[in-house]
Design goal:
The protein has 337 residues and is mainly alpha-helical. It has twelve helices and four strands. The chain folds into three domains: 61 residues, no CATH class; 97 residues, no CATH class; 160 residues, no CATH class.
Length: 337
């Protein structure tokens, strides 16, 4: 009984400013117990909680500074969705704009480098901003429709929320994972995965390189090497999505979060080391360019490998081990509290 009430109180209070939470908890807890008979059953508790309304709606009534662009019942969810929808849509469409701008600019006159750069940048930014603005509009429209539908459901005697969906009360002293961290990981993982797939499939086949003769467009990696990257990107993307969703769901360093983070780190490290040890990584054109500008001659070799690749592999191993140790340590601390 008390667990259900505490979960409800916690869900309401966590939507309020820090300074208001304790007072609201005491007042709400007292109101709930006043509405309940002695030795109340679980069904009676659920009836009272449903009468009070959804935690989001009730939190809006407690707010000292209410916000009305979207009603309090939906405002927090609205802001949370915007935090990941706008950057995701904006960045992805901006990348697409850079690609289309590059294609269009190269058809004009590649000798005028400033025109090429201006065309690429302007096309990407204009498409990205336009897409983000449209995403804002349609997200707002969607929440307005959801709000009206929810109001009609409440009026007809139905509930737009469920007791079973109340979050577990976070124990005092546990490390909280911000919602923005999980959302940011999903956005970054999606954007870089899309860019990586485009690059590996030849949609972004060039790289700009400067030499004494001017600006050149040349491929950097061997096509066979890029083919190996595609499954690695897809696996990393799937694991990254699992990590992001788990962090958003648990919002603390739980065992599922720990397992997903460690698994992603170890798998990513193994795939990275395997790919970095592949022969013929770079294209002959790019190696020729590096040789002509003197880069290859200036860098020493370690066991037949470029020193930069060796340093990169060492940093990957150290970074992965550090990430795994940190994740396990945080999880153990949270379980002890």
């Amino acid at each position: 009984m008390e667990n259900t009430i505490e979960r409800y109180v916690y869900d309401v209070a966590r939507r309020l400013p820090e300074k208001e939470r304790e007072e609201v908890k005491k007042e709400l807890r007292a109101n709930i117990y006043d509405m309940l008979p002695e030795n109340a059953s679980e069904a009676e508790i659920e009836k009272v909680l449903y009468e009070l309304g959804s935690p989001a709606s009730l939190a809006g009534k407690y707010r000292q500074n209410p916000r009305y662009l979207i009603s309090p019942a939906y405002y927090d969810e609205y802001v949370s969705v915007l935090k990941w929808v706008l950057p995701l849509v904006g960045v992805i469409v901006m990348v697409i704009g850079f690609i289309t701008g590059t294609v269009m600019a190269l058809k004009i006159d590649t000798s005028k480098y400033y025109l090429v750069a201006t065309k690429i940048i302007s096309q990407g930014i204009s498409m990205g901003v336009s897409a983000a603005f449209q995403a804002l509009i349609w997200t707002t429209v969607g929440f307005v429709i959801a709000e009206r539908s929810g109001q009609r459901a409440e009026q007809s005697g139905k509930h737009s929320w469920r007791i079973q969906d109340l979050p577990e009360v976070q124990k005092s002293g546990q490390t909280h994972i911000p919602l923005s961290e999980g959302v940011a990981e999903l956005v970054v993982m999606t954007v870089f995965s899309v860019i990586g797939i485009l690059f590996c499939t030849g949609r972004l086949p060039f790289a700009m390189a400067f030499s004494e003769e001017g600006l050149h467009f040349t491929t950097v990696f061997n096509p066979d090497f890029l083919v190996l990257w595609i499954p690695a990107i897809l696996v990393t993307f799937v694991l990254g999505v699992i990590v992001g969703i788990t962090k958003i769901k648990d919002r603390r360093w739980s065992v599922p979060v720990c397992v997903s983070v460690v698994a992603k780190s170890l798998v990513s490290m193994a795939m990275s080391l395997y790919l970095l040890n592949q022969p013929n990584m770079f294209s002959s054109e790019f190696l020729t360019f590096l040789s002509n500008v003197g880069v290859l001659q200036a860098l020493p070799q370690v066991n037949g490998k470029n020193v930069l690749l060796v340093v990169l592999m060492v940093l990957i191993v150290i970074g992965t081990i550090s990430e795994c140790v940190k994740t396990v340590t945080m999880t153990i601390k949270n379980r002890d509290k």
